[in-house]
Amino acid sequence: MSEQIDRGAVKRVAKLARLELSDAELDEATTRLAGMMAHFADIDALDLDDVEPMTQPYELVNVLRDDVPLETLDHDEVLAAAPDATDGRFGVPPILGLDL
Amino acid sequence: MSDPATWTHEGFEMVVGLEVHVELATETKLFSGSPNRFGDDPNTNIDPVSLGLPGALPVLNRQAVELAMRIGLALNCAVQSCTFARKNYFYPDMPKAYQISQYDRPLNIDGHLEIADGIVIGVERAHLEEDTGKSTHIGGSGRIHGSEGSLIDFNRAGVPLVEIVSRPDIRTPEQARQYVNELRAILVEIGASDARMEEGSMRVDANVSVRRPGEEFGTRCEIKNVNSVRSLGRAIDYEARRQVALISDGEVIQQETRHWDEGDGRTHTLRTKEDADDYRYFPDPDLVPLDPGDEWINTVRSQLPMLPAARRIRLAEVTGQAVDSEAIATVVERRQDDYVVTVVEIGGGAERVLVHVKEAFSEQGSEPSVPAADLAALVAMEVGGELTSTQTKTLLGDLVEQGGGDPKAMAASRGFEAMDTSELDGFVDDAIAADPDAWAKFCAGDGRAVGALVGHVMKASRGQADGKAVTAILISRKG
Amino acid sequence: MSTFQSARSIAASVSTGGSSAVDVVSQHLARIEEREEEVHAFNLLLRNEALQSAERIDERIAAGEQVGPLAGVPIALKDNLCTRGIPTTCSSNILDGWRPPYDATVVSRLADAGAVFVGKTNLDEFAMGSSTENSAFGPTRNPLDTSRVPGGSSGGSAAAVAAGFSAMSLGSDTGGSIRQPAALCGVVGVKPTYGAVSRLGLIAFASSLDQIGPFTHDVADAALLLECMAGHDPGDSTSIPQPFPSLSESLDRGVAGLRIGRIVDLPSGADADVVASVDRAFEVLADAGAEIIDVTIPAFTYGLTAYYLIAPAEASSNLARYDGVRFGSRVEAADTNSMYMATRGEGFGPEVKRRIMLGTYALSAGYYDAYYGKALKVRRLMAEDFATAYESVDALVTPASPSVAFPFGSKTSDPLAMYLCDTYTIPSNLIGHPAMSVPFGAGENDLPIGVQVLAPAMGEPTMFAVAAELERSAGGTHV
Q1: Chain C residues closer than 8 Å to A77 by CB
Q2: Of the listed C91, C153, C166, C437, which one is catalytic?
Q3: How many angstroms separate the first and last alpha carbons of chain B?
Q4: At what angle do helices B337-347 and B350-361 cross, to 10 degrees?
């Protein structure tokens, strides 16, 4: 974790996360994130080679559901919440500049 | 392509792997209880999970796991304990902005599929994942490019998919087609999916690269938008040639995703590797691991139906036809082989059954119109010489129309009686007497002359004589 | 100690017709009327709905029906809990005005128990914060001293109970967001065992850490509320299948014979008065018959780092669905990608954006192993260290918050200072253990101090026994 998180990294990450940032926001974020990452270097001291990652705190297995239909949502109620609803579907501007 | 069994172009061979996505035939979606149904009004089969609403949580569909296991076992995979991962990327038809899939530990691994000529294509993995919604693009001739916007329907979002990834073992367009056809036949046989490329319940992407035989693998390109088995062959062929041309010009192949255009018969750049998203896979914390266990796995394995390859072998043995013959392939493909085997078991006549089986199914398609026992009886009469081929065909028509019957009784009521040899001898005597020229020519070695003599016998017997038997008598008389 | 009527007492009175639900609710609404402008506990007040609800309860009771153990109890809901048809915002502009089409499971369960919902409470945006200063709709003020924060992220819910606006409230706790504000506001706050309370309908921040829990005037009320909410939900795959243990017997059990651990290598940083309170707590428990045993938890000190890698990573994925396509606010743009960028850039506050970026970084290609991957391993170490400690003790006691309520703006310039508020609460979230804060002692300006009791998974009975003992000695329970 010795790598410094720099402005370029923050810009790349903001793009990945689809967050538009002003230059001022970008600068501020870089300072703060770099500070935090420096603090997090404390775990580098630990020997973690033989440790299994823990994804879930309470380790369950095989939670399954029967293949029977359950109640669906009300179409009108759902579309009413849409920023742009047309013909019962969700409208979006042209899909460009996106990685498919 | 001159010889489908090999493919080379300017000294290069093609190296192809296929990624096939299959929609599973479940009642409900992979992680929620909305119906898994095609063709309903937009955004009616929806729930918080399918729409990616705040606060929604996924719960895994047991039947989807069952079907995914069937697929894995039918492809000779090892079924293992597995986990679910989030594949993060933004796209309007992706409601959560991540797809729940399997990454580090998929359900099925290390399988294979045998195609013609004993060629075996490796299957790297077959894992579960959810489908996306569907976008329709407005304006701009229906493609994204030049559109005014898009409309999204989330009915399909969350439908269970199994992604089957082959190893790059395919070397010709024909092999690719065979792989897909065989895979489809298996999927249908085990009831996992109806696997129709034209309808989108089976989607095929091809990874294509080229190399001089013996060299390292070249850079590959992924080809998308192949909508039929035929297109698959064409697209692979085009892409391989495109790559060869570039290499021959001294250029480097860019690793990219390309779009197959059926209209102009070419692939076009969709996005390059630099554009490619970083999916940031990580284990989905909302789901727990899946460990099917030996009991479930063994149950699924023992309940697997006989697969197409095994069916072809069985049918070939039973009918004496070559296992890779068209007739065998067709009957198995049409799922009529169980019927043929039953008929033969009842009454023999293996070779004739194959000839009649198509009609026995007539327009019903999946169910035979004629009970196996009745067809067996009919074929026995034909093979035993009691009926001519023509008579048999006529009676078969009757049986189909009536949905069955007693062929002996039906033959009698039509007046189809077997002609015994002395009767036939009599007719043959008359024919020779009536047309001595034809007889002379026949004796002199003119095979065509037999036609006139046989015709005479058929006329005199009002079609009841068996043409083959008559010919046999003439030949033996000739001496 | 609180001077407000307990929920138990309200429910008993309303159920027997001693008081009317309408009167009880009106009383609470009057207090809201008086101080809400100053405190700003609510994003949304449900005045009319609450009165109507109360009326219906009174009608049903008059008709002789059983209404439920929370009959007529006014309850406030943190505004990250989905309430059908009622705006749910997570105190974010990106969800301003959004009405969920479904209820969270806990909301349904409490409604079934006869609760009356008085409003949706303020929080740090998307539950990210420790002071409620990150709300897009303005901060909530600590009712005990309005120049100070109520804590966070469930500041509104804590303040609502502290100010007597509601008899109980629900919060959510991902790194301490119930326990810390409970400590700062002088009320009881509980984070249950992970999986004990369904997360269905809780708008996710960090899926493997989030839990819903109660704020109440006293320990017995917290037990009551938890029993009403907890228990298996088939709609949440991480929901514990076993029945939730009953808690009422624990309340009077006392601590005789219990072994209570003091963590000797606990990170320092707690204010002197907080330390003194915790020391006093150990004395009280020892006097009551518990054995105090020193334990070490070496990994404790790494909790903050692990948390601030895991939580933002999961959040970066959970918050990707806020893209302006299906719900919430949208900033129009010429293409979808630009729409995403602008919608999210404008709709999210700075702290949320920072955490999304941090989380995205921790998961990104090439960094996963170094950051997120490592943090998951630290989590395992933490779990092992706690398991070892619990071989020699039944419960642990630590500070809840390192300090009493702090003035507005005093920690906002240095996020690290704010994050340190969660030092003692974070480990329980990482390993899924229950923990609760009980008012015990006071610090500067007579501001309340909370002592935290921790127990192993599903160890709520022991935890409540210890907490009840602390409460008894701190001034007794109230009626």
Answers
A1: 101
A2: C153
A3: 51
A4: 130
Its CATH class, for the domain covering B421-478, is mainly alpha
Domain residues of chain B, as ranges? 13-302, 306-414, 421-478
Confidence class for position B419, pLDDT limits 50, 70, 90: low
**Of C265, C280, C224, residue with least CA distance to C247:** C224
Q: What angle do CA C190, C192, C196 make, to 5 degrees?
A: 150
- CB-CB: which of A9, A36, A84 is closest to C415? A36
> In C, residues 95-124, which contact B (CB 8 Å cutoff)?
95, 98, 100-102, 104
- pLDDT < 50 regions, chain A: 1-2, 99-100
pLDDT digits (tens, 9 = 90+) for C276-313: 999 999 999 999 999 999 999 999 999 999 999 999 99
Distance to chain C for A38, nearest Cα, Å: 10
Mutate to test the interface with C, among B278, B286, B288, B290 (most CBs of C within 10 A): B286
Q: Does residue B52 belong to the interface with chain C, where contact is any CB pair within 8 Å?
A: yes
What confidence tens digit (pLDDT) does each residue in B135-193 have?
Answer: 998 887 677 777 789 999 999 999 999 999 999 999 999 999 999 999 999 999 999 99
Give the integer Cα–Cα distance in Å for C75 and C57: 14
> Please, is B384 exposed, middle or buried when counting C-beta atoms within 10 Å of its C-beta (0-12, 13-18, 19+)?
exposed
**Interface contact C341-A52, CB threshold 8 A:** no
Contact flag A40-C308 (C-beta cutoff 8 Å): yes
What is the Cα B101 distance to its own chain's centre? 27
Q: Which fold has domain C7-253?
A: Amidase signature (AS) enzymes (3.90.1300)
pLDDT band of B260, cuts 50, 70, 90: very high
* Interface pTM, i.e. ipTM: 0.96
**What pLDDT sits at residue C459?**
98
| Contact at CB, C330 and A84, closer than 8 angstroms | yes
Collect all residues with Cβ–Cβ distance below 8 Å to C449 and sequence separation of at least 6.
C183, C273, C274, C277, C399, C401, C404, C439, C440, C441, C442, C443
Q: Between chains, do C302 and A77 touch, taking CB under 8 Å as contact?
A: no
**3-state class percentages of chain B: helix first, strand second, coil last, to nearest 5:** 40, 20, 40
**Considering Cα of C157, then C159, then C161, then C164, what sign does the dihedral take?**
negative
| C-alpha dist (Å) from residue B118 to B7, B112, B121, B175, B317 | 17, 12, 10, 11, 18
C78 an active-site residue?
yes
* Torsion angles phi and psi, residue C212, rounded to 5: -90, 145
C277 is catalytic: no
C-alpha atoms less than 13 angstroms from C-alpha of C314 in its C-beta half-sphere: 25
Look at C203 and B86 and tell me if their CB atoms are within 8 Å.
no
Q: What is the pLDDT of residue B409?
A: 85
Our CA-based measurement puts residue C160 at a distance from the nearest CA of chain A, in whole angstroms, of 29
